[in-house]
Amino acid sequence: MTPDLAYIAYPEFVADVQVVSAALEADGWKPDHIVGIGRGGLVPAVYLSHRTGISLLSVDYSSSVPSFAGELMEKLAVATREGKTILLVDDINDSGGTIGALRTSLIDHGAVGPCVRVAVLIDNVRSRAKVDYRSRTIDRSTDKRWFVFPWEAMAERRTLLEEAEEVPERLA
What we know:
There is one protein chain. The protein is of the alpha/beta class. Helix content is about 35%, strand content about 25%. It is built from five helices and seven strands; from the N terminus they run βαβαβαβαβββα. Helix 1 crosses helix 2 and helix 3 (about 70-80) crosses helix 4.
């Protein structure tokens, strides 16, 4: 089965960032740092940082290079123990694997849980990880589209399909 690629237009992406920004404002919670999760969360985090005026940090989780995630997670955990608050930002909470792994890493490094929140553009209601802020929700039990964000649209179609098929249970 070939996945249905759902290209997200730039104006739609910007609107999603605005919705997340408005949700933060309505909640009255202003983190000390926005943390973009590499790779998919980096662009939304940059936009959200510009929109809110909150400083931006990044964690390169997708590279699977420990020194680009583990050491940074330890530094973020220390910051929460010092009373700093952080907002992790990703493009989509699909299976919950990334968000769950990052939360576990933070807790393992001694982070103060209430100092960490998560925002995404698209949130799968069936995900095993829960987020605090989102622009919109999907239900993977019925919505099998593979979302292609504007920055991903630079990839060849073949690459996008290969990435979609890496975790077939999401789309089955």
